[in-house]
């Protein structure tokens, strides 16, 4: 029964007081949350920041009553209902918890693929969310679903409403999850890393959407994130968590201008800042090492210094030459199997990659950057030429491809999905050596230990399984596996996008150090412009399958010529609350890469605005997001 509570201020809608939680294990319970206290005020945005394992997600999942077998050692969770009364929801029943979810509290989860049901269409799942909490007809609910898809900017919504989750990109799936969370206009919206997998322009739209809904509906937002740029952009107050405790809580301006806790200071140092490489022609490491070392560093100790990485050799012929690369997928067929629509994922892409160089490929979800990487290794059907060491990879039979894949390795976005959960990590790293028949068993064992040393994983952990490591450690293991065959090229597909800022800094520094040691060439695919600026020698900007601008990093970042490149740069949240963007919802219909089979393919012309700096011409009526 709802009662008024003396420990809750009138302007607070959610209060957590002295919450301690323990997880069960083989040897009893282990406490993971230690006396956590904070509150959420009406209409405010509270950001909870911290690394993986700090307890930020666990805290809010406990608020939502979504943790099973977890022991609550102490604390209270209080929620103010819409009628002003206060409800103690610490130990409510499952039935009562179901009532407050959606109507009072709603959560956007970090991983949309595991949150969406793979056997139902997104339309059916959104429809269910609306019908459970709102007493309206099915036709009215379907209209609401279409409005929600429009709100979160899903292109071709009439077609997409009948798609299954696997048919959508990661960014699209996240937008569907946001639409589902907003379906019932909750009092408190808990957003758990809702923009981690999204490119900067869609992130800007989602942040603008949440802000506009917050103003319109007077909802409170709890934003769980490790992106300090997002925190600076939207937060009113910030709670910093470390190892299950709240180590700092203050208004956003105070946290950024004068952080008091060493952990907050270290977090802010680890953030790649757009513009920090202005005037510097070569990539450079970030000035931070392991977080544990940073926190143990005494005031008089020397701080880690940036290292310039100048390994690109432009005197030799290109290591990889890509010419007129085109990749189309079938989108729709007639009843008799005739193709009617295709997805033009990659359209007439050309570039060179030199020894020791990092070519950054940047663009929004669905622009074709990952498909470009897959096409180069013939992981998807493609047309054009991919010349490596004198041979066209796309024309090689599968029997000869094996040799070339030894020299070109792939680091995937999700290391947990790319590592076999049943195989120990030592065996996983050794596997490419076995496949390519490299070395004796003893030599392979030594190679595995050497690679673990290179990526900072203790040798004694080689017999552990992937689930026993953190996300950052798993990504390092994936990098070690990619290095096993001593490749000349590594294609890194969003290799650091899902990592905490300090772990991201460590992995980026590791990749740059390895590039220097092994003269590696990277095709570095990312939607994070600040990361691309930090690690790249040259940059290629993609939009709707086309390259719209390419050049050196200094040319593209310091003198962007294409409207789409400018839009990408303008959409990036800056980790400074005094310089908030005035991004609004972008207007107009979102273009689609799906075309009728008979539609003509536009021919793009490129203008060389300065030596090596090419910009796509828009003469044929292609807006390219301008």
Lay out the secondary structure.
Layout: E1 12-25, E2 28-41, E3 45-49, H1 56-63, E4 71-80, E5 86-88, H2 94-100, E6 105-108, H3 112-115, H4 122-133, H5 138-151, H6 157-160, H7 170-181, E7 188-192, H8 200-217, E8 220-225, H9 228-234, E9 237-242, E10 245-251, H10 252-257, H11 262-269, H12 291-296, E11 320-333, E12 339-353, E13 358-362, H13 369-376, E14 383-388, E15 391-392, H14 398-407, E16 408-411, H15 415-418, H16 425-435, H17 441-454, H18 471-483, E17 489-493, H19 501-518, E18 521-526, H20 529-535, E19 538-543, E20 546-552, H21 553-558, H22 563-570, E21 594-596, E22 606-610, E23 613-616
Parallel strand pairs: 3-8, 3-9, 6-7, 7-8, 13-18, 13-19, 16-17, 17-18
Antiparallel strand pairs: 1-2, 1-4, 4-5, 9-10, 11-12, 11-14, 12-21, 14-15, 19-20, 20-23, 22-23
Short description, anyone?
The chain has 626 residues and is α/β, with parallel strands linked by helices. The protein is 33% helix and 25% strand.
Keywords:
626 residues; alpha/beta; Rossmann fold; six-stranded mixed sheet; 25% strand; globular; nucleotide-binding
